[in-house]
Design a protein that fits this description.
452 residues; alpha+beta; Helix Hairpins; Heat Shock Protein 90; 4-stranded antiparallel beta sheet; kinase; nucleotide-binding; transferase; ATP-binding; histidine kinase
Length: 452
């Protein structure tokens, strides 16, 4: 899904944040509910105790004094009326709900020797004239009729509120601080858990460019140490394999050069100049193929250290060397900042592409431009170009196009493969494209810091 973060760290944080939010919402809801229930219970108990005291007082007063006391207790929330006989229950009376029944039980604990009956009346909800998180109004009236000991009845008509009238700010602040503390711990824990994965990913990416890199530190939890140890073992096995292959190829190269040298010496003894020239050309091609094949199979492994390179100076040197050979090479644009890389490999990359342009397009036009943190080198020729469906295939070793890019023009079919390897070793990329006005462009993108 596009909405999910791409990194493991982001996904874990999102999952934990959702879980934390749900937990906080549930906890807050339960806390608010329990708070409301506690407030209602203590409010009802206080009210019941107060009115029970009033009933006991009315029991002791003469009948003529009761009316004055009842009037004093009457308020917008509670209406108190006296009756000489049992009050009549209205026809629209409703059965008591759980809250009214609980209030009745509380009353009975204070008035154990009194007869008490109750019911509910529906009352319109008034419109509040203020704005609060919870609307303050009334839904129902709880009515309780209590029989007095000496004579008569008293009716308490309670106007019940809808809910709590203000937010519990201390509780909200407490939950907020708790959530913030948990969030900080979650961020720290997830970062601690994913850091070894990031280090392993960086090491694997770096291994593709530098097999001689330092081994990973085998520290941390058991699983992390096992992964680092396995990665280091893999790196050592790869290095040993490539070292063995390099030694084998070096021996093969040495064994091949010896008969080639003997054949070159013997070709000089040929009397036919035309035949001698063909032998020498074939031997030169075999020597070049041997050297470039070994370079390609070695992966261009070089002990040369990475250092700052003046790219413009390097290109101008190549231009001067080729111009002395009668070739046409032009340079446009500039890049002032040095790039990090291995000078001999960067020179070979640019030379291979420039010589390809000269070989197949008569002249080479080099354009240099900055592209953010990268530098882009575009080398254009004025040859026939390459079919679109073969722009990638020409990077395959020994792949050739016929007839315009055949063996008759020279080369071994490894130049582009070696050039792309050099670009990728330096964290860059190389691709080809046909120019709209004819010819082929080789585009090299290199990071200025030597890594991507």
């Amino acid at each position: 899904m596009r909405l999910l973060p791409q990194s493991l760290f982001g996904r874990l944080i999102l999952i934990l944040l959702i879980g934390l939010a749900v937990a906080q919402i549930v906890a807050a809801s339960l806390s608010f509910y329990e708070r409301d229930q506690a407030l209602v219970y203590f409010s009802d108990r206080q009210l019941a105790e107060h009115d029970a005291d009033l009933v006991n007082l009315l029991d002791r007063l003469p009948v003529r004094e009761r009316t004055r006391v009842a009037a004093i207790r009457t308020s917008p929330r509670v209406r108190v009326r006296l009756f000489s006989h049992r009050p009549i229950t209205p026809t629209d009376a409703r059965p008591q709900d759980h809250r009214a029944l609980r209030f009745l039980e509380i009353l009975k604990t204070f008035l154990r020797h009194h007869e008490i009956t109750g019911y509910l009346l529906r009352d319109p909800v008034p419109h509040p004239n203020h704005f609060l998180p919870f609307d303050y109004g009334y839904r129902t009236r709880s009515v309780f009729d209590i029989r007095l000991r000496n004579h008569g009845w008293v009716r308490f008509n309670y106007l019940r509120p809808l809910g709590i009238t203000e937010w519990p700010y201390p509780l909200i602040a407490y939950l907020g601080v708790l959530a913030l503390a948990i969030l900080v711990l979650v961020l720290w824990a997830v970062r601690l858990a994913t850091r070894p994965l990031s280090a392993l990913a960086n090491a694997a990416e770096d291994l593709g460019h530098n097999l001689q890199r330092e081994p990973m530190p085998e520290t941390g939890p058991i699983e992390v140490r096992r992964a680092a140890r396995a990665f280091n073992d893999m790196q050592n096995r790869l290095r040993q394999f490539l070292d063995d292959r390099t030694r084998l190829l070096t021996a093969i190269s040495h064994d091949l050069r010896t008969p080639i040298t003997r054949m070159r010496l013997r070709s000089e003894l040929l009397d036919d100049p035309a035949l001698r020239e063909k032998f020498v050309r074939d031997l030169d091609e075999m020597t070049a193929m041997t050297g470039e094949t070994l370079d390609f199979l070695r992966g261009l492994d070089s002990a040369e250290s990475v250092q700052p390179i003046d790219l413009m100076a390097l290109l101008e040197t190549i231009q001067a060397d080729l111009t002395e050979q009668g070739q046409t090479v032009t340079i446009e644009g500039s890049h002032t900042r040095p790039i990090l890389g291995r000078p001999s490999l960067i020179r070979r990359l640019c030379e291979n592409l420039t010589q390809n342009a000269l070989r197949y397009g008569q002249r080479a036009e080099i354009e240099v431009r900055s592209a953010g943190r990268d530098v882009e080198i575009v080398i254009r020729d004025h040859g026939p170009g390459i079919p679109i469906d073969r722009l990638e295939k020409v990077f395959e070793p020994y792949y050739r196009l016929d007839p315009s890019r055949s063996r008759e023009r020279g080369g071994t079919g490894l130049g582009l493969s070696i050039a792309r390897n050099i670009a990728e070793i330096h964290g860059g990329r190389l691709y080809l494209r046909n120019h709209p006005q004819g010819g082929l462009e080789a585009v090299v993108t290199l990071p200025t810091n030597g890594e991507r």
